[in-house]
Amino acid sequence: MVKKFYITTPIYYPNDVPHIGHAYTTIVADALSRWNKQKGKDVYFLTGTDDHGKKIAETAREAGKSPKEFVDILVPKFKDAWNKLDIKYDRFIRTTDKDHEKLVKEMLQKSYDNGDIYLGKYEGLYCVGCEAYYTEKDLVENCCPIHKKPVEKVKEESYFFRLSKYQKDLLKLYKDNPKFIYPKSRKQEIVNRVKEGLRDLSISRTSFDWGIPLPFDKKHVCYVWFDALFNYLSGSGKNEKYWPADLHIIGKDIIWFHTVYWPAFLLSVNKKLPKEIFAHGWWTFDREKISKSRGRVINVDELISITGNKDSVRYFLLRATPFGDDGDFSEKVLIDRHNNELANKLGNLVSRVSGLIEKFGVEKTTNKLLKKLDEKKINSLMENFEVDKALNEIFSFIDRCNEYVQEKKPWETKDKKILFELKESILKISEVLLPFIPESAEKIKKQFLAKKIVKENPLFIKIEEKIEEKANKQEKLIGIMDTKEADFSDWEKLDLRVAQIKSVEDVEGADKLYKITLDVGEIGKRIICAGLKQFYSKDKLKGKRIIYFSNLKPRVLRGIESQGMLLAASNKERTKVSLIAPDSEIELGSTIG
Ligand code: ME8
Predict the structure, then answer these.
(1) Looking at the domain covering 467-592, what would its CATH class be?
(2) Which of 158, 411, 534, 589 has a CA 20 to 30 Å removed from the CA of 465?
(3) Active site residues
């Protein structure tokens, strides 16, 4: 019988375009999904968006849109990003999908009928960012420990879920299923916290209405986490064909919701429990927290544009850190890996060998080289989710193949048997790399399965060749990037203008950002968000003439479309920032260069 494999990502809040963190989870899930498919399993891969909740309602309001209008604009951006990264999901679920809403209502009713939901009063400290309540002792300097922002005091009538009732069942679950929480390093913390005791959970709100109404009391809408978690069940295929999930992949930020609330909700409605939950580590950006307000966020388009190659992004993220650990993103490391590993090692091998085969052909023989590939090891690493190590193993084999070419010198010996070994080995490499870098792997496979192997456009471009080749870079499998020099044409692309600051406003909930309105002469009025609050008072900024980057792609920060950037100098630690200003009253809109 074919074994099924049901894998999920979290459903992301569509309150901005997806960034590197969302991309990471989704790429890992895609690689594991493709790998399991290759192993012959009946795979079902679910991803989607978490459309409801107060956070979305507030961001929508700031953007002057209704929540539904707002999410309808952002959800396609997630689909588009996943498409650009070759994510092959089976369903993209939204919590606003009718079948999901219906299932959540049924589950609420079932849990209510089982006596697990009761009406009470809630008074608590709420963080909108987390969509969760905290107690005084959880707070850090009176702020949410994750978002570092003040929490709200909330008092409302609320339905409660009897979470406390499930403490014993949960502890038994963790004990009997050592693989339920992965990696092990995160498990103990959950077990300890559950042992301390569980308080019943408020699962409804009356203070806003952007959610699923409770079937037994329509004044209340369902708490976003009860709604969200059940996506895994409503999205599990026709008649819940794939339930229970084999693997939920999540970030460590939401491990509590998945390993405590989720099994308790499922136990309450008599459904089977997911088999494994893997909570991976956290990405930082140049060692700082990814943060929209500080501009330290990198979205999927920006990520791909660094090398112009989606497979470099997939490869970098999958290889960069042991799966489970935290990771730091830096453009330089991405480019280094692209150059050294994809372009030089893989690209070089493919290009050299295809050229030699085009010239000399191949002759069948036993393949000693291929025996050096330890597929068993790769399989067992993948079964343990050690994606980075599996890639390591594949790349050691690529190294071995490159050495083989060097040792055997087929360009001198014209030995068709050696070329046969290399051809078959490269075909195998394309197969094992397919889950990780599908587009490149497909290209290699196509090239090496062709009746007559022809050396295609170079799979890597030498740096000297790069400039001429730049125009058709899209065509290339993998190109070498030059990290240091900017062309004059790069500079020419920027449009810098003299502008004057007309007004400065605070941005709700952002402690570092100002919303600034600029007069840019002939260009007109522009609005930007800038992280200047720590460095300049509003009065100091008002009336100031500054330099403005006018043709940068707009970015949405805190629901505000920021149309560019100001030119400023900052020290390494970013503790000092100084705006660069023209030293005379030159006309607004004047160009710089
Ligand atoms: O929490 N590093 O949605 P969300 C690594 N809707 N991964 C990151 C990351 C980072 N810096 N930032 C985000 C929600 N992620 C809920 C989930 S599920 C039933 C409901 C990834 O948009 C990581 O997978 O805040 C994390 O768990 C998830 O995005 C949070 O996404």
Answers:
(1) mainly beta
(2) 411
(3) 19, 22, 127, 130, 144, 147, 289, 292
